[in-house]
Structure prediction request, 668 residues.
Amino acid sequence: MKVKWIILCLLIYGTAFYSSLHVYSRQSVTESAEDAGKLLPVKIKYVRDVHTTKDIQGWIKEARENGETISIAGMQHSQGGHTLYPNGTLLNMTGYSKILKFNPLDKKITVQSGVTWADIQEKINPYGLSVKVMQSQNIFTVGGSLSVNVHGRDIRYGSLIDSVDSFRLLTPDGTIINVSHKENSDLFPYVIGGYGLFGVILDVTLELAEDELYQHRSGEMDYSDYENYFKEKVKQDDSVKMHLARISVAPETFLREMYVTDYVLADQQDKKEKHSELKEEQIIALPKFMLGVSRYSDWGKDLLWETQKEYFLKNNGKYETRNNVMRSDSGFMEYENPNRTEVLQEYFVPVDQFAEYITDIRAILEREDLNLLNITIRYVGHDEDAVLSYATDDMFALVLLINQGRAKQDIEQTERVLQKLIDVTLDHDGSYYLPYYSYPSDKQLKRAYPRIEEFFDKKREFDPEERFKNLFYERYGK
Amino acid sequence: MNYRTFVASQSILMTASSMVFPFYLLLIRNIGDSYSQFGLAYGLFALTAALTHPLIGRLSDRIGDRLLMLLYTWGMAGVMIIVPIIDTISALYFLQITMGILGAVQKTTEKTALARQPAGQHTGQKIGNYHLWTSVWGAVAVMATGYLIDFLTIGSLFYIASFLYMVSAVILMRSNFILKDQMKEKPVQP
Prediction:
């Protein structure tokens, strides 16, 4: 009797087990992935950790045989799905991170594209060298930064494209080519700021600058004085090497009060040694808490603004090396709320039009419901080297940090407001930065980037099978 | 069912559950796209367990621990082969409810079975040994899985766990109806 029962149970179990396995093996194995914007969770077929070029060539071959797509990811801080494409292969480049060649005398460094700015800083700081152009934070990969053609606090060296000597590109057919101003030079302005659509950037040779000692010069002012201040005190003064400003998003001083920090070449460069040790991220609990409070309340925003302003103004006169200015904290901005996220927008507006522009966007933002947490302002000089160039004039770049929900209606609400802001930006001969969520309309994209068709045409010419694909291309390139 | 069989089957099922637990949490996190769904899924489990505890307690007095243990082991063997193939949040909620009930069955029966071992001076020692072996197996399983996961897919881990639950069930089925017979022979004195 007992044996019969056991056999019966085992038979039923065996059948169920087999059926489950059958279904399981037919399910396509997927992993989910998303970028820092957290608005585009995507099922990826394979996430491949890249270590050698042979690996990538193998995966490209495989993708070609199976008619599949490839997207390329560094730190995934682009927020418009530039690193993602559903059911494709995602190349995780962060492990492809060797420093290949460093020649302090030439002031050049060759790195694999998964190397971060932090890695480079650690390598070159002892030699008194520094990166020319990068973001204000150092957590990003070089390959990712090239693909979005970043700019930062530096006001003298233009955008990243200006400091790239050459790079190697793994093309859609699996071959490796050199790209520089001399070799395959037609590709240079497409791949830099190319959002991973032309192939995999393998290694990059960058020009370096001298590490220098700067002295902070901080001050507060009304937004209407900023343009003149910048022109006279910053741009014309060759000793000012970097610049950063912030305009208030706190209700009491909304889009009126500003404070600025100029990084002025210090008189006593011999003191540099004393300050050259690379700083590490400081305790983040307090700024994280204050940013947290400012997310949810107006008084929190006022409090954050006042405290932050005081902190920056107190730093007036402080000495800091260039390398240390280029490694500002970011840990306190990490945000783990499951239902909400924080997205960025960046708008460029010609220096001459700043005050009128602020007046116009203030009019919109005072009417609309947008949880704006921060606006920082940097400067980027006229630079149209890349096909998708944003600096069509000498521009102020305003980076907006926005807290929003992740649901469909939240996205639509943000889109409605941001499209108005973008229209105003474009009306002021401005532009916007592409690595963020696809809020801008097709029409706005064309206005901001007149060469966008040319860009997508070149992509299809170079990659006719559309092996390299991402959600940015899917949204705008079709 | 004697003490040895009981401890053996419990150790095996403890191995299975410790093995998949961390990965099951991961799975819940992945299927749900927010912590609130994660919370709901987990809460459903705890709540069904809480609500079914009294029922199961009474049931164990009526039908004996062995049948309930069989329900648990076969039930979990079944659940573990469903886990790898679900991909919707509602299926997950359903599984959590099922596992809530089964979890309550296991919690109650491990205690009642221990309590109903023939009374004697060694009750404490037996309970001690029971916890020793089940915990040791649980710990070994967690550590081993940490290494194994490099070679296995998460899906196959659940199939292995299901297999272990099945073995545990078969061991129980092969054992005799001692406890239930004992209950019949020696009714509780008023």
